[in-house]
Each structure stands twice: as C-alpha cells, then as structure tokens.
Write a structure and sequence with these properties.
The structure is a single chain. The chain is mainly α. It has two helices and no strands. The mean pLDDT is 82.
Length: 50
Amino acid sequence: MVIGFLKNLWQHDSVKFITRTVLYFLVFVILLYLYGYSGMSGGTFIYNEF
C-alpha cells in the first residue's frame, strides 16, 4: 500500500523536480565540504609550475 502510494506520488512532475533538486543540492554541499576538508585549497595551482 505504501509502495503504491509512493509510485503514484513519483508520477507527478513537481515531485520529481523537487526531489531531484534536493538530491543534487545535497551532493553539491557534500562535495564542497569534502573539498574544503581535504585541504586542497592550500596547495599550489598546477599551472603555476610551468
């Protein structure tokens, strides 16, 4: 019953858009966090050494 409700809910374009937007935003935030946490911003730019 719950699965059928979720399948019917997923058929709406607005639900798909909102769900995907939230998912992509979360992935973007996680990537920004990992980029800042890894300390990559402190290194030299690769083209500076040429």
